[in-house]
Design goal:
The strands form 8 sheets. The protein has a 4-stranded antiparallel sheet, with no helix packed on it. It is mainly β.
């Protein structure tokens, strides 16, 4: 009898366990069915959501989600307007203010009235330095807030900023012709370098804040000469120097640890702070305009002589190699590059080219009032007068 009771209890326990398993299975089936019904009703397409925000090149699609009703966006002034693309934002400088704007909704992330007589901005990644050229004030900001403001003893001649927030600037000097300083993001002076060989007209600092370059102007044997110097933070003297007679320097810029020197009639590069490479020898080109790609390479537009209608666009590597020549039948006003495209502004319109192949990718209509342009996804952001506006295809 006892044996039968144990057997019946075992069977009952087994039936209860099987019933519990069935309830769990049915609950799971009902849950999955409910999810499928909901997805069918709302027709969720996760690939379409992804495609809305990511373009075919893998870049974030800023433009397709733009709130178009906010454009045109009114600026506070039409004087001295310059626009720069920085960290997916637009940094706009006028003669009275500097504003970082989110292009999707034209909302300012960081804005201030600088009060400078001759404002200049230099950008690198998340940081930008704004200074009063010929005045005694400069400031370091990131995309959202101010890091510091500084007042110098002597007038600021030029400045630059690294991706890590280090600022290099040159001033006039009572004890020498010029003096160069490098400040850490906390305003610590990590380098002070007196310059006696000429007046500094351009400076540059690499992404790490360790490598620096500066260009001076002077006369030698009654001839005007620009001299380029490279120096590392912590060194007592320069690493190398290069002379360019009769050349006006337009820009110095580091790409990683290598340096571009852009003159009014030439382009040179310097690798390892010592080795010079000749892309266009002094006097062999007429510089029209230029910009840098997202990877830091130089895009250079030049003509064979100053009044030529025919212009040439080339991509110049840090070793001085010019490649992917694109022929332009008209003289451009401005050039920019975001992602894998080149945006070329002319007096009567905008042309877009592939950065990799040089192929024509389309055009946009505009008039001569547009002073600068950046293409973000399917739209072009332009400055015309005192407005930031959007041009669609």
């Amino acid at each position: 009898m006892a044996g039968n009771q144990r057997e019946n209890a075992r069977k009952a326990k087994k039936r209860n366990k099987e019933a519990k398993i069935q309830r769990i299975i049915w609950a799971a089936i009902i849950l999955v069915a409910a999810i499928l019904v909901v997805m069918k009703i709302v027709e969720v397409d996760f690939n379409s959501i992804k495609d809305k925000y990511i373009d075919k090149n893998g870049d974030v699609n800023v433009s397709d989600n733009v709130e178009m009703s906010v454009y045109p966006y009114e600026l506070d002034s039409s004087g001295g307007v310059k626009m720069m693309y920085q960290g997916d934002m637009l940094n706009i400088l006028t003669d009275t203010s500097c504003t970082v704007i989110d292009p999707k909704d034209a909302q300012p992330l960081n804005t201030f009235n600088h009060g400078y007589a001759n404002p200049v901005v230099k950008c690198a990644d998340n940081y930008f330095v704004t200074y009063d050229q010929g005045g005694t004030r400069l400031r370091l900001d990131n995309l959202k807030k101010n890091e510091y403001k500084d007042t110098t003893e002597e007038p600021v001649l030029c400045a630059d900023v690294s991706q890590s927030g280090d600022v290099i600037y040159a001033t006039s000097s009572k004890d020498s012709k010029s003096c160069i300083y490098v400040l850490s993001p906390s305003m610590k002076v990590v380098m002070k370098h007196e310059v006696n060989t000429g007046y500094v007209v351009a400076v540059a600092i690499d992404s790490t804040g360790k490598r620096c370059a500066y260009a001076t102007v002077n006369t030698k044997n009654a001839k005007f000469i620009t001299t380029l110097y490279t120096i590392n933070v912590g060194d007592e003297g320069e690493r190398a120097s290069f002379e360019y007679p009769g050349v006006n320097v337009l820009d110095l810029k580091y790409s990683s640890g290598d340096l571009y020197f852009v003159g009014d009639n030439c382009v040179y590069t310097v690798t390892s702070q010592k080795k010079q490479h000749e892309a266009f020898k002094a006097g062999t080109s007429n510089t029209v305009c230029f910009c840098y790609t997202k990877d830091g390479e130089l895009l250079y537009v030049y003509s064979d002589y100053s009044s030529a209608n025919e212009n040439h666009l080339v991509n110049i590597s840090t070793t001085g190699r010019a490649r992917k020549k694109i022929e332009l039948s008209k003289r451009p006003k401005y050039i920019s590059s975001v992602a894998n495209e080149i945006c070329v502004l002319f007096g009567d319109g905008i042309k877009v080219f592939s950065l990799t192949s040089g192929d024509d990718k389309g055009s946009f209509k505009c008039d001569d009032s547009v002073s600068c342009a950046y293409k973000l996804s399917s739209r072009v952001y332009v400055v015309k007068g005192r407005q930031l506006d959007v041009i669609e295809e």
